[in-house]
Amino acid sequence: MLILLIHLFLAAVPTVLYGLYGTPPAGFPGVLAFAGVFLAGLVAGFLLLVLFLIVVMIGFKRADPRGMFKHNLLYHYSRYYYLILQRVRLVATGLENVPKDNNFVMYSNHIEAHDPMYIKMLYRHAPMAFLSKEVLFKQFLVGSFLVSMGCIPISPGADRSALNSILEAIKRLKGGQPFGIFPEGRRTYSHDIITFRPGAFKVAVKAGADISPVCVYGMHEIHRKGRILPCTVRVHVFPLIKAADCEGLDTVAIAQRVEALVRDQLSEFKRLHPTSLEKA
After folding, report:
1. Alpha carbon 215 to its chain's center
2. Is residue 64 included in any domain, yes or no?
């Protein structure tokens, strides 16, 4: 809400100045002129807000990613951009299951590129970073943002580079930074599940961390072609799977257990809240 008020203020200032010191035409053309100035102010204000976010993320790129300042800032920007500007209604269930400490790894299905931002909104009090595709770190600005938030690049293959990324995640997790991992390995763009990779669960097992399973649903609706009206996305947080409960289990069994939870929840969402995918 604060960012919205700042944005409206940045748009109102040039509009008021135009009325006081400008020469707007009379009648309906004058109304259009004021509307044009206000709209231009909205665009310029949004660009200023984005520039501020970029400056903070890059300027403090090497700051400890366990600190909450950048995570809180990103939380407020995410709420403003996705929930207000993108007109998305986020329905979250199971919020009582969000971990109270930072000794956890979040595992979720992966539908669209913006899934991490919606999940981070629910885990707003944790400095959660992600194991992210290596190629993303080579993109302009995106790579800097990921590094600033503490994310770790991981290669798609099961090679030494991927192993080093997992070892680094384990090290940071033990040092107090929780992680989010998408064990499918890529986006599905649907409500179908790709078999969860057991290797992804080595991070939680080796670090002795709890597992926080999550199910995301309806994310494709956000960028559905021709969408004008608000849309609804759903995120469900399952009860924690404590590290002690995983003792004696291999990563294959753990992966199957978490996948079954997410698969069943997706089926329930499809039954109760069918989207354009189910209606097609």
Report:
1. 13
2. no
pLDDT surpasses 90 at 92? yes
Range of the domain at 150: 69-279
Q: Which residue's entry shows tokens 């290797």?
A: 199
Q: How far apart are CA 115 and CA 108, in angstroms?
A: 9
> In 3D, which of 100, 143, 122 has the Cα closest to residue 240?
100
DSSP 241: B
CA dihedral 247, 253, 258, 264 (to 10 degrees): -140
* Residue that wins the pLDDT comparison between 18 and 209: 209
* pLDDT tens readout for residues 216-244: 999 988 888 888 889 999 999 999 999 99
Per residue in 164-198, pLDDT (tens digit) is: 999 999 999 999 999 999 999 999 999 999 999 99
**For the stretch 239-277, what's the b/e string if a residue is b when 16 or more beta carbons lie within 10 angstroms of its beta carbon?**
ebbebeebeeeebeebbebbbebbbebbeebeeeeebeb
Give the residue-averaged pLDDT of 98-109: 97
Establish if 256 belongs to a structural domain.
yes
Same domain, 117 and 179: yes
Query: Token pair for residue 198?
Result: 């057991």
Number of domains in the chain: 2
Which pLDDT band, with edges at 50, 70 and 90, does 159 fall under? Answer: low
Q: Where would I find the H helices in 60-103?
A: 69-78
d(CA 72, CA 158) in angstroms, rounded, equals: 34
CATH code of the domain in which 143 resides: 3.40.1130.10
